[in-house]
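Thread: quick sanity check before group meeting

JM: Hey all, I'm pulling together slides for Thursday and realized we never actually wrote out the predicted structure for the chain we discussed last week. Dropping the sequence here so it's in one place. If anyone has concerns about the input, flag it before I start.
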Amino acid sequence: MSVVLTVAPTGPIAMKSDNQYLPTQPDEIADAVYAAYLEGASVAHLHLRDERDLPTADLGIARRTMDLIEEKCPIHIQLSTGVGLSVPFEDREQLVELRPRMATLNPCTMSFGKGEFRNPPDGVRRLAARMRELDVKPELEVYDTGHLDAVMRLYDEGLLAEPLQFSIVLGVVGGAAATPANLVMMVERLPKDCVWQIIAIGRANLQLTGIGLALGGNARAGMEDTLNLRKGELAPGNTPLVRRAADLARALDLPIASVEEAERLLKLPAR
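JM (edit): ok, ran it. Output follows.
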């Protein structure tokens, strides 16, 4: 089975003061995504920033970023509706109106570092229903076991279509720790025939990505998840992180999915 490789170039937290190579503006993000596509990435997970480099759900910025990427390559675009802790949920959910191939769906409110990641139940249901109407594939981000239970309740209500697509996010302060035991436990609790990937935040990124690949998952790489290529060494951009994840897959004799293969493996709605 081929591995679907996602690039997450920016994220909602880090700033250029943390790593000068972090792409924040539309042209920078588009260039980073294109370079990752050349390394084998078939999905681009996008967070957006305004002119001050702060998280934004501005539809104009989102549209411009998507257009710039689409001019460069055919990678599948996945917009984050998480956006940033300071952005209201009602603004974040409007991003799906741009009809990306995929968008994130976060099922629960949670502590996130020093802040609160707000995902009210009624809003989550509304967003899930709208995504289904628009044929936008949800990427279901679960940070702990209770989040998985919340997703399955949405499924039981008819708000999600199979196959379910999960991201197991480990290492966020407020969610489950980034340990092999937690990853194995979460994988064992996933529903049959779902698609999943590991997102390991911080210092455990490399190790848990390798374990996730060995367990049959897909992989995500990029500066949203770690700013370091190795201990004490900042990553000089997203490309080395994506290349490292692709090399991990190949070392396990797992081919990297093309854009066309990713569409089939993820069973994306037809466009």
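AS: nice. The CA atoms of residues 203 and 230 lie 8 Å apart. The longest helix spans residues 59-72.
JM: adding both to the slides.
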